[in-house]
């Protein structure tokens, strides 16, 4: 029996994370759900399984880089190689650059950017050995239009954009695809920023023929 491909979603909370999970599950992927909110991902796991999909949930704090690495190793050992890595984790910290404390900012940056770097580094050796794989990073318009009251998130989304560009440059001669989906608005069901519409963008980027970095803007 052929093993289902694996889609790993870090930041698989309600809304967009769940919508991405369901979109890839419909295509036959086993979904590995990772999030800091254990109750939320357990609920998503149950809903996906009730719908006949393969899904497993694990709690993790993306700011805990050692714990994140340990869990990623455990998942690869148990479920096999990851075919699609989706990094959707984010931490909202209200505050501007003149008053945000250093430690909360560093924690947010670990979640927003460094966790994505660690996850990509962890998955890339297996992807490269197999000659296939997709890395999808959730971006935001704060990268282009920062807001003073969301200083850490603005710098985080700028960091995600830069990380995607650097990964793409390094991996340009390989089959590994790197994409970033930039969401230029607040995610609200029933609007043009409906999470299910955005999830369709993630699937579209994954299934495109590889070119230069795939930047998909949801505007």
Automatic annotation (TrEMBL):
Coiled-coil positions: none
Signal sequence residues: none
SUPFAM superfamilies linked to this entry: NAD(P)-binding Rossmann-fold domains
Superkingdom of the organism of origin: Bacteria
Database matches in InterPro entries: NAD(P)-bd_dom_sf, SDR_fam
This protein's name: Short-chain dehydrogenase
């Amino acid at each position: 029996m052929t093993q289902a491909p694996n889609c790993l979603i870090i930041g698989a909370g309600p809304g967009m994370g769940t919508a991405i999970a369901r979109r890839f599950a419909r295509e036959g992927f086993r979904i590995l759900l990772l999030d800091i909110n254990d109750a939320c991902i357990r609920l998503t796991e149950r809903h996906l399984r009730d719908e006949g999909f393969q899904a497993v949930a694990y709690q993790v704090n993306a700011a805990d880089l050692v714990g994140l690495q340990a869990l990623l190793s455990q998942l690869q050992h148990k479920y096999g190689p990851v075919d699609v890595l989706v990094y959707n984790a984010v931490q909202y910290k209200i505050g501007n650059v003149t008053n945000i404390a250093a430690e909360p900012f560093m924690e947010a940056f670990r979640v927003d950017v460094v966790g994505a770097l660690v996850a990509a580094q962890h998955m890339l050796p297996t992807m490269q050995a197999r000659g296939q794989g997709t890395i999808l990073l959730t971006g935001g318009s704060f990268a282009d239009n920062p807001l003073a009251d969301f200083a850490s998130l603005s710098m985080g989304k700028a960091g995600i954009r830069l990380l995607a560009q650097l990964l793409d440059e390094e991996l340009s001669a390989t089959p590994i695809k790197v994409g970033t989906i930039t969401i230029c608005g607040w995610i609200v069901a029933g609007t043009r920023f409906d999470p299910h519409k955005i999830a369709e963008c993630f699937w579209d980027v994954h299934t495109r023929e590889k070119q230069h970095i795939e930047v998909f803007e949801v505007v």
